[in-house]
Amino acid sequence: MPSSCAIDALKAHYQQLSQLNLLDLFKQNSQRAKDFTLELDGVYFDFSKNNINEQTLDLLLDFAKQQNLTTKIQAMFNGEKINNTENRAVLHTALRSNKESILVDGHNVMPEIKAVRAQMAEFCRKIHSGEHLGYTGKKITTIVNIGIGGSDLGPVLICQALKPYRVSGMNIHFISSVDGYMLNDILADIDPETTLFVVASKTFTTQETMTNAHSTRSWFLDKTTNNTAAIAKHFIALSTNTAAVQAFGIAPENMFAFWDFVGGRYSSWSAIGLSIALYIGYNNFDQFLGGARALDEHFSQTADLRQNLPVILGLIGVWYNNFYDYHSLIISPYNTRLTRFPAYIQQLEMESNGKSVNKAGAPLNYATCPVVWGDSGINGQHAYYQLLHQGTQVVPMDIIVATSDKFSNHEHNDILWSNAIAQAEAFMTGKSYDTAKSELLAQGMSQDLASEIAKHKVFPGNRPSNMLVLPEINPHYLGMLIALYEHKVFVQGVIWDINTFDQMGVELGKALAKKVLQDIESRQISEHDGSTVAIIQHYLQQTTQNKQKS
User: Fold this and answer.
1) pLDDT score of 238 more than 90
2) Which candidate, 92, 106, 14, places its Cα nearest to that of 53?
3) Which of 119, 159, 410, 513 lies deepest, with the highest CB count within 10 Å?
């Protein structure tokens, strides 16, 4: 990695520390649980069950300082063009800011941001009050969000997590896949007279989104006896392409803009969040912004990096990825409302930091982003936790849980909590052969059989985990949680000297897909590798046969 002196010191430290396990570290420091805990606005972050000590943190923080982390944090918040490959500022933080002025190329972007917020708030008011009605005079009660990537994953997560806060009587659906099944399944269940379609595409040319949007438009016109004037009542656009939006039939006043300094995976705070605001109400959406803003202020203003939550979370990840060679990360939320959180973090982390060249374009000789995966923790226990406990790979885990859930009940919450706590403990402590054998003997098993079966009941332990505890899952704390991971990703990008804010690896597959589609539509196969040609031929043969059968 960039700073060789810091790396050498960390490597030497790793050689010493790796001889100790987590239980050793707790024995060495009776105050470890207290010393390796941070709190912010009710959020409790326990990172004591990690293979680190104070020296580890000191060395990692020295490394961060050598990488000018603090300066680079301020550069992002100040609107400098830190996205060097696209020559853009990175200002998703401005979307939730209350500042009067943030300059990009000498231009104050805050009036525009606040104007879009006001436009969103007013549109939500019109929908919820019934001032904006459907073409037959019925109230809008269903939202259908049509988007993909960041225009889908964020809204899906947030709406699911905040479902208890939804506006009374409001329903929401999401269409992202272009396979047709998702589209047809949703259209079959909705009423065109009471449905508002939100088309999220900055350019209004995104293939998947616009295919779904045009198919939905055709369905709507069929249901309304070709009433093109009704489109303006039932379709809105989150876009910057005014001409394409108007050509679609959407009224200009129902187009909501966002900016180049906001990447898709960071866009839920922008007009992309309109579906969220329509579902939970703008006041709750504003609280969501406020939670993120509180984390922004903590991240940008906490000069003591040892007390900075995103910094510590990010550095722990670097420690495992680059020194322990743990190249996988589990996200385990112990709350069903956060089931989509792992998928959201997958995009956030892997699309941001899945890079193999540094900011200058030079190839890297060290690992960057780990593979991120996971599911609801309680479900994971009965699925892949077996590998985590007894498999040959060590996979660090982030466990996320809420202290209370006023929408659940105490008995269920107690059981949920006990499982989250117990799993973290089991990952750390494990179970020795002698303990396993003693347990089997106590159950009446013979000496010989116990000796054999005990081998299969050994848990190595020494498996690290973080535990993030939210007071509850509400708009404010969900905003804080998402912003925490956004800034964690930024910290790691700085350490690895990569551009966290482009995603050029997404482009090749899209370009080739257009070429393949042309081949399929023309039934003339252009130049490809042998395998690709064979697959296209197989598809064309099968579709021809299917048409003949029908």
Assistant:
1) yes
2) 14
3) 159
CA angle 428, 434, 438 (to 5 degrees): 110
Section 328-340 average pLDDT: 96
- The three-class DSSP label of residue 493 is helix
CATH class of 4-66+302-429+464-502: alpha beta
pLDDT bracket for residue 116 (50, 70, 90): very high
The 10s digit of each residue's pLDDT in 133-165 is: 999 999 999 999 999 999 999 999 999 999 999
Type of residue at 162: L
Residue 273 CB partners (closer than 8 Å, separation 6+): 120, 154, 155, 158, 267, 285, 288
Percentages helix, strand, coil for the chain (3-state, rounded to 5) are: 55, 10, 30
All structural domains of the chain with their residue ranges: 4-66+302-429+464-502, 95-287, 508-549
- What confidence tens digit (pLDDT) does each residue in 39-62 have? 999 999 999 999 999 999 999 999
Query: Across the beta sheet with 255-256, what order do the strands follow?
Result: 171-175, 142-146, 195-200, 235-238, 255-256
Angle between helices 150-161 and 475-496 (to 10 degrees): 140
Q: Tell me if 476 sits within 8 A of 292, measured CB to CB.
A: no
Helix (H), strand (E) at residue 378: helix 377-380
11: pLDDT strictly greater than 80: yes
Please identify every residue annotated as catalytic: 351, 382, 510
Q: What pLDDT is attached to residue 1?
A: 67
CB of 207 closer than 8 Å to CB of 176: no
User: Helix H segments across 351-474?
Assistant: 352-353, 377-380, 385-390, 410-429, 433-442, 447-453
Domains 4-66+302-429+464-502 and 95-287 share a fold: yes
* Nearest C-alpha neighbor of 173 from the set 142, 128, 217: 142
Q: Provide the CB-side half-sphere exposure for 286 (13 A, CA).
A: 12
SS3 483: helix
In the chain, the percentage of residues whose pLDDT exceeds 70 is 99
Q: Is pTM, for the whole model, over 0.85?
A: yes
